[in-house]
Structures are given as C-alpha cells and as structure tokens.
Fold this protein.
Amino acid sequence: MTSRRDLCLSLTAFAALSQFSDATAQQPQQHVDGEAANHAPSGSGTPSGTALLQDNTIFSAGKLPIRNSAIGSSQAVTHGTLPTGEGVELHNSTLLPGHEPHPPHQHEHDEFLFIREGQVDWLIDGTRHPAGPGDILYAASNVLHGMRNTGTTTARYFVLAIGPNLRSA
C-alpha cells in the first residue's frame, strides 16, 4: 500500500520533472544503444545504479543517455535508495503509436506514470482506461497493469517506481 508520504514525494517529483521535460526538449540528446544506457555517464552528476540518493542534484537531461528501440525510447534518470530506505527508479520514456512497452505484468514495487504527451490506455486488472496529457497513472504493488499507446502520435511519459525491491545493494 502506498502511504501519503510516498504520494506526496511522487507528486513533488512530477512537478519538478515537468520543468525537466521542457529542458529536455531544448537540449541536444546523446543516443546510446544497448545496456550502457542504464548507467550514468562519467561526470554527469547523476547517481549510478547503486546510489544512495542523499545529496541534492540536477539530473542533466543532455547528459543522460537514451536507449532507442523499435517501439520508442527510454532515458534512465536514476536508480537508488532514498535516505529513508525506499528504493526508487525514475525514467523518461517515449512509446510509438499502437505499441505497449511490455506485456501486462505485476511487481512488488508501486509505480506512478505521468503522461506528458499522447493518448494511452491504462490496463488495471483487465479493465482499460483512457488517459492523456497531464494524467497520472498509478500501479499498486502486485496488481496486474499495462499500457498501450492508442493515439496517432508518440506518447511521452515519466515513470517513478518506489519500493523495497528497488533498493540498491
């Protein structure tokens, strides 16, 4: 179950990320294929995949690698552990029309998806719900969920995942 604290942290992060997304569109992007895109480049100021996220930082959009695929792209922002003990992952993604990022699934952690652009269907326990720009989708721990781009343009969204299974070693 997600606590009020988790929800407040998430909504604050989404508010900050809306400014980050505007900066992303204006900066040149570094494209990287393959697994290297999951790790922060040297000198980026971005915590690595095993980071204890305890210091204020800027996740510079122009320095975060983008991993392209046949269905869209993903830009890993961070993966680490908060000082309060929660594991957290954040990524910025795109999804081409008619595609889903992966089949419906469930997992231990909670997820918030902030839809910046495009139209998607949000599948929760077998029922589809339309969502669009500005909508925030929530996937509770261990509940079957999935998403499909039902629009005619690329969907752009952030995913914030929070849970004990995401903690760094």
Q: What stands out?
A: The helical segments are 4-26. The chain has one domain: 4-42+60-166. Confidence is low (pLDDT under 50) at residues 1-50. The CA atoms of residues 24 and 61 lie 5 Å apart.
